[in-house]
Design goal:
The chain is α+β, with helices and mostly antiparallel strands. It folds into four domains: 3-118, PAS domain (Beta-Lactamase, 2-Layer Sandwich); 162-275, Beta-Lactamase (2-Layer Sandwich), CATH 3.30.450.20; 289-444, Reverse transcriptase/Diguanylate cyclase domain (Alpha-Beta Plaits, 2-Layer Sandwich); 465-701, EAL domain (TIM Barrel). The chain is 43% helix and 24% strand. The strands form five sheets. Strands 18, 19, 20, 21, 22, 23, 24, 25, 26, 27 and 28 form an eleven-stranded mixed beta sheet that branches. The protein is elongated.
Length: 704
Amino acid sequence: MDYQQAFERSPAPSLLLSCDLQIITCNAAFEQAVGLLRDALIGRPLFEMFPGRGQQQQVLLQSFQQVLSSAAAHQIPLLEYHLSTHVSLPHEYWTTTHTPLLDDTGAVTAILCQPLNISELVLLREQLAQTDASNPVEPLTLDLLGLLKAERERFNQLFQQAPGFVCILRGPKHVFELANDAYYQLIGHRQIIGQVLADVLPEVVAQGFLDKLDRVYTTGEPFIGRAIPIELQRVADGALEERFIDLTYQPILDASGSISGIFVQGHDVTEAHWLSQEVSFQTAHDALTGLCNRREVARQMAELEQLSGTHTLMYLDLDHFKIINDRCGHRAGDALLCEVARLLREHTQKGDVLARLGGDEFALVLPNCAPDCAHQRAQQICESIRQLRFLWNGRRYSITFSIGVAHFGSEALASFSEGLGLADAACFLAKEKGRNQIIVSQPSDEEIRRRQQDMDWTDRLREAMREDRVVLFGQRFDCFSEATREEGMVCCEVLARLRGADDELISPGAFIPAAERYGLIAELDRHIIHKAFSILQELPPAQRQRTRYFINVSGLTLGSRGFVDYVFSTLAQFPQVQPGNVCFEVTETAAINSLAVTASLLGELVNHGFHVALDDFGSGMSSFAYLQHLPVQYLKIDGEFIKGIRNPPAGSVIVESVIQVARAFNIRTIAESVEWPDLVPVLQGIGADYGQGFALHHPQPLPF
């Protein structure tokens, strides 16, 4: 059902307000009632558009505050307030109902305001009262009788056309005296005037509505209900149909003050109720698969955690899902996810909670499930998914799951959040160990603990970048050759540290592996590049002219979309920085994994004036031949070879060979890991251009 269309076409004027009383939207009936277009209303404060007078505004404000504080509906039976732009009456009177719209946690997210103009009814009542008061004993003239007849017909017309349903019940048996068209539309086919309610609406007796009427008639206390479900036989001999109504029972008093009947008023809010239910469902469920989403499963688990017992959580991740998305497109990926969701539903039992956490990740919670049983069910799921043959455009694709299993609950001494972290880490470990398998997590597992630490680092690293707590250090190179001394460039490698919450500095070994494993390294590299350019910009011109920062770039960053464009746009933000001030370091293994692509990207940077260094040279070396394809100006010789110089004869021979080959390509060499002073003369003797290591310079904060 199109609930938005139902809201729009409803004959009841309806206005949707935010919690701070800003107008969100209204329907056509409200536009007609007030004589304003919704474009003039949307986004405006309610009391700016309809200011009223002080006391009137206060009555409305108190009603809204009651709705917000109690999360329950509130009705103002009679309110004098100027809302319309096209009504010529000197006074306007309204009855209005304010209904809260709630999210899945029960919090109020909006207020549905439904006013009904009863100005003419109030005016008629006043006119009749004045007529009775001015002529208490005189006989009515023909003219007066005609006037009263016309007014009575006018009142009846207004009564019948009221958008809310209204009826009047007389006496203790609740005999129908009056009912308007909206009431007949609600109850359907029957004739009710002069009939006892229990006789003509027998289906409502068992639903408790007769008891409510009796209570109002006996006690004189009104009854107000919001979105009350009621089943009515609206078609003769038809089935009961469920509707939802806002309902008010108000006692009617005679001249002596005794209760003589009940005034029934309300609205059929079925469409609005269904719309609210649909919105609540969509808030709690994944739009593609219809499964619970991450937010909803966390809400349900907060309740489950309070119960005794040990519960099992499976974290399920499709293997190689990206291949299907890339080869067949996202429509195929969506179709596969729906098929997987269908299969997982077949493996759920009563009480289980199945959710899609995002992407190709699912969760299945098994309340009070023993570990052996949980592992058996995980194996059944793995086997079922292996047997699934996904067909797309005539091709079949095999699907597998990696599953991490963890336990939580009061007896497991772990919360759902902790269990989710353990299961996620176990699932990641299952992928690292070859996929298509199940890993059961235990809090004492060292591998699981390391994976959890890496996962924790992703959030900490994002927060550190957001709060500018990435600190750049530099380690200066020493010039070993006469040629590099004559160039006069001060070269240093840019090293990242994180400043922790206690102001401690955290080394890159703690967070770089996590950034690479969980796809944050490209974001981190760009953050460092931007910050390094900013530091260069602030250097005095003379110092900046002879400074060159060596900035590490991972293979993932280099291959990410738009990296070269990012470098050029960042350079444009810092006009004092020249490309020659920057050298990008790329590891040898990353460079040769995709030689043609890497050579093209690096070529763009070099042609623009940047320098490029090949880092850890020799660690993946099988041949020097690829050097002629890479536009590099520096080779950083892997530190293991430099340390090996102290174990002659092989160490120095390898390093000397690298230096000679680099010289043949007109490439400068940098010896890494110079940790002992006695290495310096050896490296100078075999022709190294630069040295880098703790024996030469300890890293210090930039700039220096």
